[in-house]
Write a structure and sequence with these properties.
Elements lengths: L7 H9 L6 H9 L9 E5 L5 E5 L3 H6 L6 E5 L14 E5 L2 H10 L8 E4 L5 H10 L4 E5 L2 H13 L5 E4 L10 E6 L8 H6 E11 L9 E8 L2 E9 L27 E5 L11 H10 L4 E6 L11 E6 L5 E6 L6 E6 L4 H14 L8 E6 L4 E5 L11
Parallel strand pairs: 5-6, 5-8, 6-7, 8-9
Antiparallel strand pairs: 1-2, 3-4, 9-10, 10-11, 11-17, 12-16, 13-14, 14-15, 15-16, 17-18
Length: about 400
């Protein structure tokens, strides 16, 4: 009898791209039907930037199921904010298959390993873990009760019965696990995840130190001696944990240019550096200037004498803001700021530290998280700490 592989379609796509290298995970992808973990309706962004529900039976969702793309399965935490039923912000999805596999392979799992999954979501990733490691070795935690119950039903229908918990992933159940895998991005790796990783175990998680202005990156940390350390190993465009998402707001909410206490000055730093999308710089800036938000505006159209000039605002949503005026001839650049933090000084310190370290690319960066949750960023080796002092 010819074997039937319900996941053969997506497995074929991933193998053609070279996205699966480990035969054990290839077998898991072949065995798990991805389409069985998609709800009756999914969400697609329209021309206005809002998300509209589409029956999964429609042609586009059916095509997405066989492509290497993520699919939005919930918006606005299950309560679409649009008057017409449309949603504004994705809050749950079935992740891009190649990213799913990259994270699973990064764990370095061996037969019989136990795994703690942070973020059950639709249950597809959980099913892959069960297929590879055995359901008895899988614990998964999901913050949204409705999402958790739907995942439970799908998993049980296919015969997978892992330990499923409804709760905050930052506070997982007690115990040690050989692998800790997060399918939600965090601005800081919780100390509880470090405690949950067995000695020699691994934590694979999307880390978003620059939440709100830069995509998260994937880190692989090895546990031991009360801390976890490892490198940035790739991209990981995941949604932020619900309690860490920045508000959806306008920069004007946090900047008061009429503040009589605002201080004027100047600086040599090019203020446009906050928009520098070098992946290594984005990580350093996000880590060293927590809570940073920014907005930049060109001063004039191309044919205007002021073309090339710009105004750059930075803020932290906690009472500090600053503005700088960029002009093509170069610095010094005029500034104004208010609040307890000197944000331009912090940004300048981060830029100096990054430059003096050789402007390291993202793959040269590493992270150490202590048992108390302290984060230390380093270049090449843990001994080469990156220090940013304004």
């Amino acid at each position: 009898m010819t074997a039937v592989y319900p996941g053969a379609g997506i497995a074929r796509v991933l193998t053609a791209k070279g996205a699966i290298q480990d035969p054990a995970w290839h077998r898991a992808v072949l065995a798990v039907p991805r389409d069985r973990f998609v709800p009756e309706a999914v969400w697609a962004q329209d021309g206005d930037g809002w998300y509209t529900a589409i029956p999964v039976t429609d042609p586009d969702p059916q095509r997405w199921l066989t492509e290497d793309v993520s699919i939005v399965t919930q918006v606005d935490d299950g309560r679409p904010r649009g008057d017409d039923g449309r949603g504004y912000s994705p809050s749950s999805s079935i992740s891009q298959p190649s990213l799913v596999v990259a994270m699973l392979e990064a764990m370095g799992a061996r037969d019989g390993d136990t795994v703690l999954e942070i973020g059950t979501g639709t249950g597809y990733n959980t099913a892959l873990l069960c297929e590879r490691l055995g359901a008895e070795n899988v614990t998964s935690i999901e913050v949204d009760p409705g999402v958790a119950e739907a995942a439970r039903e799908r998993l049980h229908r296919l015969g997978y019965k892992p330990r499923l918990i409804v709760g905050d992933g930052a506070h997982p159940p007690e115990g040690r696990f050989d692998r800790v895998l997060a399918t939600v991005a965090v601005t800081r790796i919780p100390a509880a995840w470090v405690a949950a990783a067995a000695p020699g175990g691994t934590i694979v998680a999307p880390w978003a130190p620059g939440a709100g202005f830069a995509e998260s990156v994937l880190v692989r940390l090895e546990g031991g001696h009360g801390e976890a350390a490892g490198r940035v190993v790739g991209d990981a465009a995941f949604m932020l944990a619900r309690d860490q998402r920045p508000p959806v707001d306008a920069w004007r909410t946090w900047v008061d240019e009429d503040d009589p206490d605002a201080v004027t000055g100047s600086m040599p730093l090019n203020p446009r550096c906050v928009a520098d999308r070098d992946p290594g710089w984005s990580v350093v800036l996000g880590w060293s200037v927590p809570g940073l938000g920014y907005a930049a505006f060109e001063a004039a159209p191309d044919n205007h004498p002021a073309a090339g000039e710009a105004t750059v605002y930075v803020f932290d949503r906690a009472g500090s803001w600053a503005v700088a005026e960029y002009k093509p001839p170069g610095g010094p650049y005029a500034t104004r700021r208010a609040g307890p933090r000197d944000l331009w000084a912090e940004i300048a310190a981060a830029r100096t530290a990054w430059s003096q370290s050789g402007s390291p690319a993202r793959d040269r960066l590493g992270l150490t998280v202590t048992a108390t949750g302290e984060h230390h960023l380093w270049v090449d080796t843990p001994e080469n700490a990156l220090t940013c002092i304004p």
